[in-house]
What does this fold into?
Amino acid sequence: MPVRPDSWTLDFTGGQWILSYLGCPGSSLRLYARGPVTEGTTDGEKLPALEVSGESAGFPVMAPIQVHGTTVIRAEETSCLPARPRADGLAIDRTKIAGTLQFADCLPVILCGRSPFPWVVIGHSGFAGTGRNIVSAMVAYILKTYGRQALECTTAWIGPGICRECYGRNLEDPWTEWGTKVFPREYVILKERQAYFDLPGMIENQLLELGLSESAVSRIPFCTRCRNDIFYSYRAGDRQRNFLVARLIPSGHKDGNSWENDYSSPFFFQESQFWSVIIDGAFARWRYRGRSPWLSSCKGLHGTVEYRPRRCC
It folds into this structure.
């Protein structure tokens, strides 16, 4: 599937990496990766990503205990922190409540739409979740709750997460044996007593089989293990998590980063640059705020990289 440059942006501001998912008006969908907001965070702790970024804006936050299953639940105040129900999928269809899931090589799956009203369903799809097809559970929730027309107008994102080349499992592991039976042959490569699983490709295929069109699905072109300079990766030895935060924007509010609405935020900078970037031959929009030696040294980018400074929009 080709990269859609209009479906995401990657921001580096105040030392924090943030990937924003674009194309669903009325929603805020962001993955907080490496940086001061997420540094030192591990599963089971209070979520500083929400507090520091101001993303929750004082709203109740739902942060379930993730168990690599297929349960999808609605974000309700009664289930928000400090309560932590067990689930790997969250449905958000009201403002003034935020939902979050954590990732460290597993893939975020985001489905959103505006029929019959704005809604977002986010899912945690790792090896077990992909094999068990949590995507099917997410779509089933949409059909049951919002109707067939909602699915016809759904926008979807996959990733970032670990790529096939980085996700090898020992063939002697019972879970690996299970995976070779569950995953179609085209998504598994056997090599030197290892089985390499293509989780992004499998998830994409699941979405298409469930009725989404290719034009509605976007794959974020980053592997968390390959790009460990940007994202936390369990396989790279990290114990921190990337935090996906989803919420609906009240009518009349700017659909942008929290610091774009709040100029008192520590992440707001007067100086802004907008860069177009060519990464491995694929065009992507790259937004940067403030000055950083990272841009001048071009560290951390693979392949051909071309910076084109533009005026910030």
